[in-house]
Design brief:
5 helices, eight-stranded antiparallel β-barrel
Length: 354
Amino acid sequence: MLKSIITKKGILSLLIVLGSVASTMAADVIRMMVKEDRASCTGVAPMNCLQVKYKNSKNWELFYSEIQGFKHQEGYRYTLSVIRTKRKNVPADASAYTYKLKKVIKKEKIAVKPSSGKDPLMAIANQKWTLSKINGQGVSSDRAFIKLDDKGNKFNGSGGCNGIFGSFTYNPKTKSLSFGNIASTMMACADEKLNKLETDFTKALGDQTFRLETSGTTLTLYKGKIKALEFRTEANNTNDIWNFIGKNRWKLIQMDGVTQENSPVTISFNLTDRRFSGNSGCNNYFGTYEAGSSTIDFGPAASTRRACMDATLTELERKFLNILGSKSFRFDVADQTLNLYQKDRLVLMFGITK
């Protein structure tokens, strides 16, 4: 009897040890160097990739995934300790690994060379520049933007609700950009947040002179040493990305950092009607959304009322709909995954499914 108990305990302990070893083998810690600027690349669609070096790398390599918990700041070169975990049930054409930041070992400021030899104004002219920060504060909407016409020294864009336009002058010696008074359409703005954004943006921009810096896909307007206004441009084509998102059906593979194996949760997007729909575990759900080049705002999610006998699926459905409904996210598409972020934290990851 005692021998039997000991044997059972021994087997149980061995299984625990083996399970621990298997778990350890699934993840490893690697060191990566991340370059100070991103580079244009093409995964499922044109996008901007991190550039990395591994222990034995001689040249910079394009990195098509994202590193969870790591926020890349252009102009800084990083040495990172990263937890690399092998995925189970890898989505079609997705990376075989997920990456999570363990520690920033080193952060070094590096001067970023302009993307071309052109004058800074020529490098930014005739492009749409979406407002990303005002005085260091992030802008959640992508409705505010400007375009500069280098030939007529005119600009136009949107303050958030209304169209804006005016003139500017540029001094190539000092790389200074001076905006005149801003005129705008007079449409009433029912959204209080957009109304405030428009007021803050036009006040910060109009009748002001800035020092101009640009690098790749970022544009910064300085007042002295202060970054007064920061903009981004999309190296990728927004329509191409949304066409890719819309033509596919997406399956939940990670939620709040937890891998969802064999998840029944799906989502699809109807680009014409701006509607989303899918299965949340037990029920079908649906609603409307508004989308930009890098943001998506979900309206309330309505669903069918079918009883769910599986407690695990009930909890999965409750949590998923709670995260998704009436929320705003930043998104990107990488390695055929659709990733939704809140405050730079990855909260939902979907992979392509049939």
